[in-house]
UniProtKB/TrEMBL annotation:
PANTHER family: HAD SUPERFAMILY MEMBERS CMAS AND KDSC, N-ACYLNEURAMINATE CYTIDYLYLTRANSFERASE-RELATED. CDD domains: CMP-NeuAc_Synthase (cd02513). It comes from Mangrovibacter plantisponsor. GO terms for molecular function: N-acylneuraminate cytidylyltransferase activity. Keywords: Nucleotidyltransferase, Transferase. This is Pseudaminic acid cytidylyltransferase. InterPro entries: CMP-NeuNAc_synthase, Nucleotide-diphossugar_trans.
């Protein structure tokens, strides 16, 4: 059981996994690597998890986790004020063709493999000692809202349909 301060909606991943890692060690076991898998990631596959562990070991990394591409260049992001007025985050990118902008990635939020020591030392996950496991956008859906749930259902149906088509051919 987690202590109360780590059992709420605001508890961070690193302190929670640090606690679990230390608990395992204090109860007679030792884990060299620990994986945090999010329950809000319905399309995670066993081979992704294994690839994460292999990547962590191969690079002697602190962490390995899934990433996916943003569907549109983040350099074209805009802000909307309370008055519904628009401004660009990067106005200098307005005239750059989207295909010439640097590709951007984000955390897919499916799992984080880490060395036990990285978790215990509370090393930052987003650092040069972390490695990425690339996933297609169509396999990434974090579920935090009812809208996220509906999108996950649509994606699931699309995946089922794709598998049916592949089986029929």
């Amino acid at each position: 059981m987690r202590p109360e301060e780590l059992a709420n909606d605001y508890a961070g991943t690193i302190p929670v996994i640090r606690h679990a890692t230390e608990w395992i060690a204090s109860n007679g076991s030792k884990a060299e690597y620990v994986c945090c898998i999010y329950a809000t990631a319905p399309f995670i596959l066993p081979e992704d998890i294994l690839k994460g562990l292999e990547t962590l070991k191969e690079h002697n990394a602190d962490y390995a986790f899934t990433v996916t591409r943003y569907p549109y260049p983040i350099q074209r992001a805009i802000k909307v004020s309370d008055e519904q007025r628009i401004s660009m985050f990067s106005p200098d990118m307005f005239n750059v063709r989207s295909q010439d902008l640097e590709e951007s990635w984000h955390d897919a939020g499916q799992f984080y493999w880490g060395s036990s020591q990285a978790w215990i030392d509370e090393k930052p996950i987003f650092s040069t000692k972390s490695y990425s496991i690339e996933l297609l956008r169509e396999r990434v859906q974090d579920i935090d809202t009812p809208e996220d749930w509906r999108v996950a259902e649509w994606l699931f149906k699309a995946m089922e349909f794709k598998n049916e088509c592949l089986s029929a051919s």
